[in-house]
Specification:
Residues 80-91, 1062-1078 have a biased composition (Low complexity). This is SCD domain-containing protein. Belongs to the SCC3 family. The chain is an all-alpha fold. Helices cover 62% and strands 0% of the residues.
């Protein structure tokens, strides 16, 4: 073998029958790294190494060849194994009791079974060690067999093979025997083998731990492991490469632990030597103990150095090549183990030559690898002795670390935020304002874990060490809360404080310091700006709401599911009791102080909704209940804002439902509404007498709004306002206020009718005839009002549309299903009225309004109203108020309006399918036929024009709506095809092609949903209609030919639309056809659909 030049670095391990590896020369052979700049990016020679042919380990001999080529000076002393007449290792001159016995099946399976089951791993290792001491070759072959078996390889290694073949030949032979039927092998397999990886880790650590005192330093054992695993890790068989890399890295980790133990032992011995030196000063005689300690320390140093050499060799032979492997998990294994070495042995591994691999891997395309890099870095900053080295690394890769705050992988982003917090703790001046801006934005992230991590960074930087809140204000927390408000206002990143409060909720107690927040609002010494006051009140309301419910804001993703734990439930109860006790006396004062500011009052009114109401029963709290309802009465008298009035009405409703205080609250509410109702009566009388001036008109509108707000939470029959409201709807015609008055009057009439119907049906008895007649009279009155409003497009038409749809459901045929006495109340709208409903929907929901000049908020409001109109129409179909066929009004816009209403359309189709498969199929066909009819004649005759292609795309998108089980939807699909055929041959005149013939090309999109036998039935029907309509076979038009071809059985890849180029046949057809033969016996052949 030719000698390797001294300057050439060895690349791999040796082949068999060579002298023991000199790991010192191997580790120091590549000296070029010393001349490289710190953290030099990988060059083409290191990052783009040319892939070697499969199983080529020919270069292994350069690593373990003639050691003289490395000019290695011989070590002093007797090498290990000299008593046996051998050099430092090498298999050829080894003298042992060699046996050629084949390994027993029991022994061969024992190690693999222990790892796969996770049971008796320690016992299996002990037995193997015993066999190694007795039968060296058998045990060695058994361990080699284990490494291949744990890869999923079925090949067998005999002692003869292990003793005579090189590792290159063994790996080649095992590669040939490896049946790689799938990408699954034990360490990536799920199911029963999902714990193999953890068990293999335990096995390898146990093996190294059990052999660390004697066998670990046996050259024949460790050299074999190193050579075999290094060769397997370089294989192109993924199972070999993956498993061997895992084993090599875990063995390295175990060796690192042994090195640490040896280092600690050496330090202990050094202390003992120093102690013995002190004794020798007064005693000139020799000290045998001192000499023994010196020898022991020397041996320990040699052993530690030898293990470090093995670790370094494995690092350069496996890690350096596999940390950039094409398989992401292999890269993860390498980075994870390197992070572990740095954590447990920083003196050796926290160095530029190792840290650079972490830095380079920060740019990995796979999020899990980047995540492992960040996870490896975080614990290192807890070690003060290595901070100087880490500072250099961070300065080099800071730009990349900051960019990873917005990593698309959430786990990586969360971990990076935590790393930034650690960085700020140790290097406060490292991060600039530009670096921290992305961190501040993450406070409002939709993912809660990410937002909480960002909040923890702010806790470290700004809001540190707040005092635990009590029932009294805390002066120390006041400036922190003001800083939080300043951060929220100046950040200008979000308009909802609830997301900010949620981020800090579990990590900073100041957001639960309700007493201090109220003190900031009520104490004049703070002199808060009105904007600050609004934000503090918003924070207070958000904190109270989350403390009572334990739920994060809408739109913020949480991972935990299910009911809260016992501790969380207990914390919720304690927090609720504490804020109730603090805020019951303060909320009335806050309502009084800020009663003129609507935004502040709305947030304050929501706070008592979460009170623990039984606290009002104590003697010292009863006066505060009176103060609260008095403040609410004052708000109703002072404001006419709809949102505020509804909030007050809801709070009254909430308080009235708690029986111990309901009497007191009801008295206040009834007194308040008596005055409102009295003024409405008086105003209507003035309207009849034409004596209503502008002031009276404004007051009348305000009182109508107040009563409408309470109508949604209580039955108004006590004030008997029905006839008055009907009169208002018929006679009120003031132009400026007509819309407000009509909408709210209509709303009150509808809600009152709903309460009347509920009272009639919930009593459990058969309603009396006069009660039914009275309710029917009121229903008909309201229907006439709503019809007139809808027909004339008068003020309040949107409210009329919503009320009409709800009434069609409320008074539908199911109302009389259980009680025949309710039959007179069933409402069956006529066709003309339903046509008016459709026209209104089309005009107000599907004709794009001109929103170019509107601001974003206004656009959102208009879109919300449009979605509400569409959803209301969909409810009519779902609840049976209208037949499924009427859903075609929406479904024909599935493609054109999918962006705005796609979720509503999909839910409607799903519900329709649950109701009736056949009707859904017919409805889809009708929708397509309607759109085809609306096309121009030229467009119908041009199947490649834009309009026709758009219709074809719609059909393609509606195909999944019929479901994936062709056996369940077969009658729906065949009905669709039957109707399509009938439609295609309509209006045939003479020899010209029927005008609707091209519709068959649209029906082709649904041919893939037909079972094989149903295709035959549809094809027969097509021939039947063709002959009946045309009467001759002379005319075979192109659409007819294409459609007929789609009904023929053929492989899926061939069943393709000629014009669109899209595959029509579905694999679901094959699955459904195959499923007919499942079960016992031959199964029953599916019956073909009747010939229509």
């Amino acid at each position: 073998m030719s000698e390797t030049p001294p300057e050439q670095s060895p690349q791999r391990m040796s082949t068999r029958n060579q002298a023991r590896v000199n790991y010192t020369d191997m580790a120091s052979g590549n000296t070029s790294s010393e001349k490289e700049p710190v953290f030099r990016s990988p060059t083409a020679s290191t990052r783009g190494r040319k892939k070697r042919p499969a199983n080529d380990v020919s270069d292994l001999s350069t690593s373990f060849g003639n050691l003289s080529s490395f000019n290695t000076p011989p070590k002093r002393g007797r090498p290990r194994g000299a008593a046996l007449g051998s050099a430092r290792g090498g298999r050829a001159p080894m003298v042992r009791r060699v046996t050629t016995d084949e390994p027993s099946d029991v022994e061969e399976r024992e190690l693999v079974a222990a790892v796969k089951s996770g049971k008796k791993i320690q016992e299996a290792v002990d037995k193997w060690i015993a066999r190694y001491n007795e039968k060296f070759l058998v045990a060695t072959a058994e361990m080699h067999q284990f490494f291949f078996a744990i890869c999923g390889c079925k090949g067998t290694i005999t002692p003869q093979m292990s003793a005579t073949l090189s590792y290159k030949d063994i790996i080649c032979q095992m590669t040939e025997d490896f049946e790689e039927d799938s990408a699954d092998y034990p360490i990536v397999h799920g199911g029963s083998l999902k714990k193999v990886r953890a068990n293999l880790h335990t096995f390898l650590h146990c093996l190294i731990g059990q052999t660390k005192s004697f066998m670990l330093f046996d050259s024949s054992l460790m050299d074999g492991f190193v050579q075999l695993l290094t060769g397997m890790a370089d294989s192109q068989v993924r199972a070999f490469r993956h498993t061997a890399t895992f084993c090599a890295m875990k063995i390295s980790s175990a060796l690192v632990d042994v090195t640490i133990e040896l280092t600690q032992s050496k330090d202990k011995t050094s202390r003992q030597i120093e102690a013995e030196k002190a004794k020798l000063k007064n005693n000139s005689a020799g000290n045998e103990k001192y000499e023994a300690l010196i020898a022991q320390r020397t041996q320990t140093e040699e052993r530690a150095e030898e293990i470090r050499q093995i670790i370094g060799y494995l690092f350069r032979s496996v890690f350096v090549h596999r940390y950039r492997d094409v398989v992401p998990d292999i890269r993860c294994i390498c980075i994870q183990e390197l992070g572990h070495w740095m954590d447990v042995y920083p003196e050796h591994f926290v160095d530029d030559s190792y840290l650079k691999y972490i830095g380079w891997s920060l740019f990995d395309k796979v999020g899990d690898v980047r995540h492992r890099c960040i996870s490896a870095l975080i614990p290192l900053f807890d070690k003060p002795s290595i901070l100087d080295k880490l500072e250099l690394f961070v300065n080099k890769f800071k730009e990349r670390l900051v960019s990873m705050l917005l990593d698309k992988d959430l786990d990586t982003s969360i971990e990076t935020v935590q790393l930034m917090r650690v960085l700020y703790t140790h290097f406060p001046t490292l991060l600039t304002m530009k670096d921290t801006v992305p961190l501040y934005e993450l406070i409002y992230a939709s993912n809660r874990q990410l937002a909480v991590a960002a909040a923890m960074f702010l806790n470290t930087k700004v809001f540190c060490n707040p005092d635990k809140p009590t029932k009294m204000p805390i002066a120390k927390n006041a400036p922190l809360i003001k800083d939080l408000v300043t951060f929220y206002i100046e950040g200008d990143l979000h308009q909802h404080g609830t997301y900010l409060i949620d981020a800090f909720f579990d990590t900073n107690p100041m957001v639960k310091d309700w007493a201090t927040m109220c003190d900031l609002l009520l104490n004049d010494q703070y002199q808060l700006d009105p904007k600050y006051e609004s934000v503090v009140i918003e924070f207070l309301a958000c904190s109270v709401t989350q403390s009572a419910t334990g739920e994060p804001p809408v739109g913020r993703q949480i991972i935990k599911k299910g009911a809260p734990s016992a501790k969380e439930a207990r914390d919720l109860i304690e927090d609720r009791a504490r804020f109730t006790e603090i805020l019951i006396p303060l909320v009335p004062r806050l309502l009084t102080k800020f009663s003129s500011d609507i935004e502040k009052v709305i947030n304050l009114v929501n706070i008592p909704m979460h009170f623990q109401l039984d606290m009002y029963l104590s003697a010292r709290m009863q006066t505060h209940l009176t103060e609260l309802v008095s403040a609410l009465d004052s708000l109703v008298e002072k404001h006419i804002d709809e949102e505020l009035l509804k909030a007050v009405a809801e709070l009254y409703y909430h308080l009235s439902n708690y029986s111990p205080i309901s009497v007191q609250v009801e008295n206040h509410k009834m007194k308040l509404l008596d005055g409102v109702a009295a003024y409405i009566r008086k105003a209507v009388q003035q309207m009849d007498e034409d004596q209503m001036g502008e002031e009276e008109e404004a007051l009348f509108v305000s009182y109508i709004k107040r009563m409408a707000a309470f109508a949604g939470f209580m039955d108004l029959r006590h004030w008997d306002l029905w006839d008055i409201l009907v009169k208002i709807m018929g006679n009120y015609n003031r132009e400026d206020t007509q819309r407000d008055v009509r909408e709210r009057s209509m709303q009150m009439l509808f809600v009152q009718l709903t309460f009347d119907l509920g009272n009639l049906t919930k009593e459990g008895e058969t309603p009396k005839a006069d009660q039914v007649r009275k309710l029917k009279k009121r229903r008909d009155q309201l229907i006439r009002i709503l019809k007139k409003t809808l027909a004339e497009d008068a003020s309040g038409v949107e409210q009329a549309y919503l009320a009409i749809c709800d009434m069609m459901i409320m008074f539908g045929s199911p109302l009389a299903a259980d009680c025949k006495a309710m039959e007179p109340l069933v409402w069956r709208p006529d066709f003309e009225f339903l046509a008016d409903v459709k026209i209104f929907l089309k005009t107000n929901a599907f004709e794009d309004p001109n929103m170019d000049d509107m601001d974003q908020q206004k656009k959102i409001e208009i879109m919300h109203k449009m979605r509400q109109l569409v959803a209301q129409y969909a409810k009519l179909i779902i609840h049976g108020a209208m037949p499924i066929a009427e859903a075609s009004e929406l479904i024909k816009r599935y493609h054109s309006h999918y962006q705005d209403f796609g979720d509503i359309f999909k839910n409607l189709l799903s519900k329709c399918r649950e109701i009736s498969f056949v009707d859904t199929g017919v409805m889809i066909g009708d929708a397509l036929q309607t759109l085809y009819t609306e096309m121009d004649r030229a467009q119908k005759m041009d199947p490649v024009c834009e309009q026709f292609n758009s219709l074809r795309d719609l059909a393609r998108r509606l195909t999944p709506a019929l479901g994936s089980d062709c056996s369940k939807n077969r009658y729906a699909v065949t009905s669709l095809h039957k109707n399509a055929i009938d439609f295609a041959f309509q209006e045939y005149k003479g020899d010209a092609m029927p005008p609707n013939m091209h519709f068959l090309e649209i029906a082709i999109e649904f041919s893939g949903k037909l079972l094989a036998q149903d295709k035959t039935a549809v094809s027969r029907y097509l021939q039947k209609v063709y002959l009946a309509k045309i009467g001759t076979v002379e005319h075979v038009w192109e659409p007819y030919r294409l459609y007929n071809a789609s009904l023929k059985e053929r492989p899926d890849d061939d069943n393709m639309s000629v014009r669109s180029g899209m595959t029509v046949a579905s694999s679901a057809t094959m699955r459904s056809t195959a499923s007919a033969a499942r079960g016992r016996g031959r199964g029953r052949r599916a019956r073909a659909v009747d010939d229509f």
